[in-house]
Design goal:
single chain; 263 residues; TIM Barrel; 8 helices; globular
């Protein structure tokens, strides 16, 4: 999903003073009403078994690679939720985070922020960096910890053992739970999930990437809350390709999940 973002510390610090404020007057009241997906795919799949279209609640995740979004149009065409990249490591703020955060909020899109984990920094330091930039926002989705291997990173390609990875994930999620009042989701990929045995983490909801098959076929029956099924989505209101996702349940289940999980 996410490629490491290489920005200088100076740029991150400069942008760090411009973070969004909770309770902005420009935010529209978030709604549980579901708009029908009008998405297409630049690289469509022939899905066997359960298909993404069988799930009624669709959404997106975005980062600096999506530079132009008409959030009102996107919301009307099935963007019921958006996970927005906020931070990476301990010194990088995504340069589009503030624009995306404000735009999604103004359109009434259910929004949450995610952090891309950098394996060469302590988890506690990364959690503090995320908290510095992401406000506690009424109606906000849980924060997300994005954990993947980074084989193409120019600065950090280490592969620590599963026990260490799980311990770091627990530190990060515990700190954010205390700050935001709800436990973060974890986003991951098939290989990282298997290599580090993330399924051993208790009390965690997962957002799983699986672009060739249903998550149940790739994650050995692991329960999930969100499924990222394509990175080549075409969504009205968004220039270029975008990651597209579904929520695991019905419209009624979505409403109930929001009641228990949204801030």
């Amino acid at each position: 999903m996410i490629r490491p973002l290489l920005l200088s510390l100076a740029l991150a610090v400069l942008l760090g003073g411009c973070g969004p404020r909770a309770g902005s007057r420009s935010d529209a009241p978030p709604s549980t009403a579901v708009s029908t997906s009008n998405f297409s795919d630049a690289d469509p799949r022939d899905w066997d078994g359960r298909k993404p279209r069988q799930y009624p609640v669709h959404g997106i995740d975005v980062s600096r690679f999506q530079t132009t979004i008409d959030w009102t149009t996107a919301r009307a065409n099935g963007v019921n939720f958006a996970f927005i990249k906020a931070t990476e490591g301990g010194d990088v703020l995504d340069p589009m985070f503030n624009d995306h955060w404000r735009g999604a909020g103004a359109a009434g899109v259910r929004r949450g922020a995610y952090h891309f984990f950098y394996h060469c920094r302590p988890a506690a330091e990364q959690a503090r960096w995320f908290i510095r930039h992401v406000p506690v926002t009424p109606g906000g989705l849980p924060p997300v910890l994005d954990m993947e291997w980074t084989p193409t990173s120019p600065t950090c390609r280490i592969r620590r053992d599963g026990a260490t990875i799980r311990a770091e994930a627990r530190i990060f999620t515990d700190i954010l739970t205390r700050h935001y009042g709800q436990r973060p989701l974890i986003y991951t990929t098939v290989d990282f999930f298997e290599d580090t045995e993330l399924w051993r983490l208790s009390g965690i909801e997962f957002w799983l990437r699986s672009v060739a098959a249903h998550p149940q076929d790739r994650y050995q029956g692991q329960a999930w809350s969100f499924w990222q099924y394509s990175s080549t989505g075409i969504v009205p209101g968004i220039a270029g390709k975008v990651d597209i996702n579904v929520f695991a349940g019905s419209e009624q289940a979505w409403s109930g999940w929001l009641t228990t999980r949204a801030q």
